[in-house]
Amino acid sequence: MRAEFVAWVTGQQSRNRTGDRAGVYGTDLGICWADGVGGVLVAYGDTFGRGWSGEGGAAGPRASHEEADWRSNVIARSDGGILAAGMRLDSWLTDRPGHARQVIPRDDRAGVREFTVIPTAGISVGRRNFLAYMSVRDWDTPGRWRTNYAGIAYSDDVGETWHKPEAAQWSNLPDGSQGWQMCAFARDGGFVYIFGTPNGRGGPVRLARVPENAVLDLNAHEQWTGAGWTRDQSRAAVVIPAPASELSVMFHWASGQWLAAHYNEHLDAIVVHTAPRVTGPWSPPHVVATAAAWPALYGAFFHPASAMAGTPYFLMSQWGPYNTMLMRLHLGT
Predict the structure, then answer these.
(1) Which of 68, 107, 278, 281 has its CA 20 to 30 A from that of 193?
(2) What's the rounded Cα separation, in Å, for the pair 50 and 48?
(3) How does DSSP classify residue 21?
(4) Strands of 116-125's sheet, edge to edge?
(5) Which CA distances in Å does 55 have to 14, 30, 61, 70, 312?
(6) pLDDT above 80 for 59
(7) Gap between the Cα atoms of 128 and 185, Å rounded
(8) What average pLDDT does range 148-169 have in this prediction?
(9) Are 206 and 236 in contact (CB under 8 A)?
(10) 295: cis peptide before it, omega within 30°?
(11) Which of these, 245, 210, 243, 241, lies nearest to 224 by C-alpha position?
(12) What's the burial of 24, exposed, middle or buried (CB within 10 Å: 0-12/13-18/19+)?
């Protein structure tokens, strides 16, 4: 199993020339999902404009955040195209022509110290779109950021506007061990499955599910124990061992298996696990892209259109260029 580079998706070096078209010169992650009306939405994290220094993201551009045109998150739309030729971004959610706007607002409540708010997963049920996000308190040391809470936002107008109900938020624990601070979504059999990891890059993966009509009701979420389902979150079993972060999960119809991709900091690589069922058992990690080839790589988010294709594709990030690229995943040896 291995991944190969197809094309840059964001940045001025990409076919999308996102700096010129959306004021997106540097951006984080690349979480894509089917929007329920025939297109694909792509959510990005911390995003910088023309004043960006070109040396990573949250570590701090040489310019101030204001001079660098910092937005905590932005969203693009893709209407299709042949992935083998690269991923096309057709439009952006904007606040003025040629400028992508922040879509998930920061938390301005008194007493909440929030540096940024980052999307971590997206999914649609009918025409309603859901976006998981984390409220980052501070970035701390590399790979050990701290969150206030995580939550699920929703949109009923195909991503134009988003709402962040407080009832759909997981408060973090004092030791940072709450297990759903970063999420991955999947749908199967009338349920939305929510894979979760703690804040940072050192934790394991756990699994919950909720009926499709109750995604925002955390009391309706059930956790997988390894043998069955419970509403006692403390009994949630580890389905993929640590370290895992920036996770994406997809059922790949052509191969008849579940795929889970994430960054593994011990291996300093993007890895993929396979499973016959959403609950597992999940295979050991298969290394598909390494930091030796792609220095400071992170994030691997499956493109939903490739679920039905013979070859899966995912978006991968690289810290120095601070942009995203499309990768083709070869499942064979």
Answers:
(1) 107
(2) 7
(3) H
(4) 116-125, 128-138, 146-155, 169-171
(5) 17, 18, 7, 14, 30
(6) no
(7) 14
(8) 97
(9) yes
(10) no
(11) 210
(12) buried
Would you say residue 55 has pLDDT above 80? no
The residue to which tokens 């259109």 are assigned: 305
**Which 8-state DSSP code applies to residue 19?**
H
The 10s digit of each residue's pLDDT in 200-225 is 999 999 999 999 999 999 999 999 99
The CA distance from 152 to 86, in Å, is 30
3-class SS of residue 332: coil
Q: How many residues in total does the chain contain?
A: 333
CA proximity to 196, closest of 134, 108, 284, 145: 134
Residue 5 carries which DSSP code? E
- Per DSSP, the three-state class of 306 is helix
Tell me the domain boundaries of the chain.
2-330
* Topology of the domain covering 2-330: Tachylectin-2; Chain A (2.115.10)
The pTM (predicted TM-score) of the whole model is 0.96
Total H helices, total E strands in the chain: 1, 24
